[in-house]
TrEMBL record:
CC annotations in GO: nucleus
Species in which this protein is naturally found: Penicillium canescens
Main location per the UniProt record: nucleus
Origin: domain of life: Eukaryota
Statement: the UniProt record of this protein carries the keyword Ligase: no
Protein name per the record: Transcription factor domain-containing protein
Compositionally biased tracts (Polar residues): 72-84
Segment forming the signal sequence: none
Compartment list: Nucleus
Molecular function per GO: DNA binding; DNA-binding transcription factor activity, RNA polymerase II-specific; zinc ion binding
Length: 636
């Protein structure tokens, strides 16, 4: 066993059948040593940043939440082992945590939602990524499924570890053929009122694709009467663009609600329907509509649909020569009707691509084929964001000096592209363990360089807890959202990179000094990042309420999966109990998201996210129960 497991009195899971020395190159040993030293530096920095890690974890695991009392514990001895968790509850009524019941309906929902997929393992891997291994075994494989079943003593299928994403859309309620009703826009005054608030909001700076002046022309075209009840392709594209804009603008927080509310999902469905009549249309309005529908899918957490629109948008922007940098004002004041603001569109697409790389879709806009030159005032937004509110009155003077800050950091998007290429591409599958460790070390160095390049007031911390959250009462909402999104991106990347280290096989450890310690310590860093992620999400719910929903769909499942795997691998570790309680608290955090301004599809997604985590809690509890009984049997 390795030194770490001996120190914690744990069974080392990094076993070797025939431990023997093999001849290894000095290069392999040096790569392991370099990664080991880097991990030691990070661990030291974490200790300095949070000298009471254990107590902090307890604080996180026992938040002030009435749904889970601080005194509540999951007692493995009070849990009955059953042949399948889908048959009955695994928590006895006498347990102090008996309020947590794992019902049959949760799994049935998952089964029905994933019935059309080829295999449930493919569904889980597409949602959670290919970075989950144990001793070289992919978790989302038949061998990985058998391993989890063995550790939990349950008949586990990958329908137990997936989030059923149902794309609720009112398309079925629309007429089956093209008709006047499909093209009917809402009242023009109500539309202008909503869009006026949209163009005054700070959200516009994260989506610099819609130009206020050009969109006025789009509105005029859209509301122009049809010629003999027939709409031209230009009018159809304009109406689709207006519907797409309304599907986003109606979701934003507004200073006052309209007396004539507009259904955001219905607008998205109509825009989607009209796009079917615009196949092959290469125009600014069509591109804007696709980008808006992509954003709407991302808001709802429907990543498959968002990836579909992303691929179409990439093709159109390249057809418009938008992948070639053209020196111009990024806000688009110098553009004309025939020359869309391609630089801004490309920046938005590449920034969004980081989300699909996070869900392990191959990047379509790569650095080698797109000119991603940043503007000279690229970092200017860090100077105005601290003083920015959710809305501001747009005038020429303000509009001239506010640089769009996009939905992410361009340098981070490039880094995610590199992570996907070096760890999860077809070429990366051929890497040996030495090459894998080398890439992990280099990527970790690049993440740290990126983190240090961010201004202090926005720089991600190495560790975040309820007690160390840097929120200040003076911070505006845009400032908080920007800082917390960078914080979540940082922890997400650390989790993804350092969980991949378990791809190393036990045989690879022969003859390479410190590889055991590297695997364990590297995975420990991913656990710290995952706990920090759940803490950040809890802070966001308290701060921005339902606006936190889109962050949950991006980061929540990865953090929960990381903690769950550690519980299954080390069920007798005292930290496993704390992480189990943290996962239960996280499920309550998801359910606490206010639903007053969410669509029905988003509310359903919240319930599915919560049930997903509770299934992980159930499996983790089963693993702890089995390990506890095995230990007692051994002692007796």
């Amino acid at each position: 066993p390795c030194e770490r497991c001996v120190r914690r009195s744990l069974e080392c899971t990094f076993d070797r059948e025939r431990p023997r020395k093999k001849q290894r190159t000095s290069e392999a040993s040096s790569n392991v040593q370099a990664l080991f030293q880097r991990i030691k530096q990070l661990e030291s920095a974490l200790v300095q940043a949070n000298p009471r890690q254990e107590s902090t974890c307890r604080d996180l695991a026992n938040p002030e939440d009435p749904k889970i009392p601080a005194s509540s514990k999951v007692n493995p001895s009070n849990i009955s082992t059953v042949s399948s968790g889908r048959e009955r509850s695994v928590l006895s009524e006498s347990s102090p945590s008996s309020s947590l019941v794992f019902a049959q309906a949760a799994t049935n929902t998952c089964n029905s939602a994933t019935a059309d997929y080829h295999t449930a393992a493919d569904v889980s891997a597409s949602q959670l990524g290919p970075n989950w291994f144990f001793n070289g075994i992919p978790i989302f494989s038949e061998a990985g499924c058998r391993w989890v079943s063995t550790r939990t003593d349950q008949d586990v299928t990958w329908t137990d570890i997936c989030i059923p994403i149902m794309d609720f859309s009112p398309l079925s309620a629309l007429p089956p053929s093209f008709s006047q009703e499909i093209c009917d826009l809402p009242d023009q005054d109500a539309t202008r009122e909503i869009l006026s608030d949209f163009f005054r909001s700070s959200f516009r700076l994260t989506f610099p694709v819609l130009n206020r002046v050009l969109f006025e022309t789009t509105m005029e075209t859209a509301y122009k009467p049809a010629d003999r009840n027939m709409f031209s392709s230009t009018q159809t594209a304009a109406r689709a663009c207006v519907f797409g804009t309304l599907s986003i603008a109606t979701r934003l927080k507004r200073p006052h609600q309209s007396a004539r509310p507009i259904d955001a999902d219905l607008c998205a469905a109509k825009a989607n329907f009209l796009l079917m009549y615009l196949i092959g249309d290469i125009s600014l309005e069509t591109l804007q509509t696709i980008l808006l529908l992509q954003l709407q899918r991302m808001f709802c957490g429907h990543w498959q649909g968002a990836a579909f629109f992303h691929s179409i948008a990439c093709r159109i922007v390249c057809s418009l020569r938008g992948h070639i940098y053209k020196p111009s004002n990024v806000l688009g004041r110098e553009i004309t009707r025939e020359t869309p603001n391609s630089n801004a569109v490309l920046a938005v697409l590449h920034a969004r691509q980081r989300h699909f790389v996070s869900h392990w879709k191959s990047p379509l806009l790569t650095e080698g084929y797109c000119d991603l030159t940043a503007s000279d005032d690229f970092l200017h937004y860090y100077t105005y964001l601290p003083a920015l509110d959710e809305s501001f009155e747009v005038n020429d003077k303000i509009d001239l000096h506010l640089t769009p800050h996009l939905p992410g950091d361009t340098r981070l998007s490039l880094l995610k592209e590199k992570v996907c290429r070096q760890l999860f591409s077809a070429q990366a599958l051929k890497y040996n363990d030495n090459q894998l460790l080398l890439h992990i070390r280099k990527l970790d160095d690049e993440i740290e360089c990126w983190r240090l390049s961010i201004p202090n007031s926005f720089r991600p911390a190495l560790f975040v807890s309820e007690n160390t959250s840097p929120n200040s009462p003076e911070e505006g909402i845009p400032h908080i959202i920007r800082r917390m999104s960078l914080q979540l991106e940082y922890h997400h990347l650390v989790t993804v990179i350092h969980t991949t280290v378990r791809k190393c096989t036990p045989e690879a450890a022969d003859g390479i000094e410190d590889l055991h310690a590297v695997v364990h310590s590297s995975f420990d860093l991913s656990l710290v990042a995952s706990r920090s992620t759940l803490s950040c999400l809890r802070v966001l719910v308290r701060t921005i309420a339902e606006q936190a929903f889109r962050f949950f769909t991006s980061y929540f499942a990865t953090a929960a999966m990381s903690l769950f795997l550690n519980i299954v691998i080390h069920p007798l570790d005292p930290q496993a109990q704390l992480d189990l309680e943290l996962l239960m608290s996280a499920a309550n955090t998801v359910r606490s998201i206010p639903a007053r301004n969410l669509t029905q599809a988003e509310i359903t997604r919240i319930h599915e996210e919560s049930k997903f985590v509770m299934r992980l809690v159930w499996l983790g509890t089963c693993a702890m129960t089995k390990a506890d009984r095995a230990k007692k049997a051994e002692l007796s």
